[in-house]
Amino acid sequence: MSRLTHVVSGPYAPPVARRELVAVSADGARLHVEVHGDEDAPAVVLAHGWTCSTAFWAAQIRALAATHRVIAYDQRGHGRSPAGRAHSTTALADDLVAVLEAALAPGERAVVAGHSMGGMTIMAAAGRPEFAERAAAALLCSTGSSRLVAEALVVPVRAGRVRTRVTGAVLGSRAPLGPVTPVARKVLKYATMGPGSAPDKVEACARIVHACPTGVRHAWSQVLAGLDLDADVARLTAPTAVIGGTADRLTPIVHARGLAAALPNCVGLTELTGMGHMTPVEAPEAVTGALRELAELYLGTTDPDITDLGTTEKEKTP
């Protein structure tokens, strides 16, 4: 019996797309793209993270599709996108550019959001003129630009070479995750979610993560282990908001703070108290609200007088 790849009921069950298309990347990799909402509505593009799929954005798609055109795609090897030959940040950037070209009308701009590896995808693409022409604004959600293994808090020991080595072995494991069991849910919740996460949110994330092929999970873990996109952050000149959870063990809040300080045009840092790494699922209203506000500000969907996103959060941040 095939493994269930996402929950099929409730707010985290992915809605049916209005249409689907295939974007072809620079190396020929084919990417599954879903489009939700009216064709004439302002566009929001969503890039999911490591081991996830378009189903990860179900709450945002449901909330935004009535007023926005929401475009979500499966990263190569994830969801319904076949694994490509290359696993690199260059490939991630190529893929995002291909999706923007395939899904947006000529000259159209969008708010582009990325969670975890999706945020890294945005950073990797920041220096591309094709990205600069299409991205009216960006949202970096629970992500980082470098030192992912060294900073991760998944292994509860003091920072140092031992923790880094053990963390790398855990995150880069080739072992299959197996079925979603009570123990598997507890492990996933500990590693990726805040301690107060509701069971339906844990279940939604577990189904998605456990559906990722083992080989794909391992291949991308190696890319993330060596990630260094610090120079690319300086090239991300689009207005960019940052969101992070204070209980994130995979990309701790130090990453969000570092990005906010390094971005040339950061328009707000939101720190979500008690939330872990899966913020679009754990705090869907906060992430959806940030997307709405970016669209209002930079796509002119409603109030043109708003001039900053997350001022309160920025002022509270050291």
TrEMBL record:
It comes from the Bacteria. Gene3D superfamilies: alpha/beta hydrolase. The keyword Hydrolase applies. Keywords: Hydrolase. GO terms for molecular function: hydrolase activity. The keyword Hydrolase applies. Residues 44-287 form the AB hydrolase-1 domain. Pfam families: Abhydrolase_6. This is Alpha/beta hydrolase. InterPro entries: AB_hydrolase, AB_hydrolase_1, AB_hydrolase_fold.
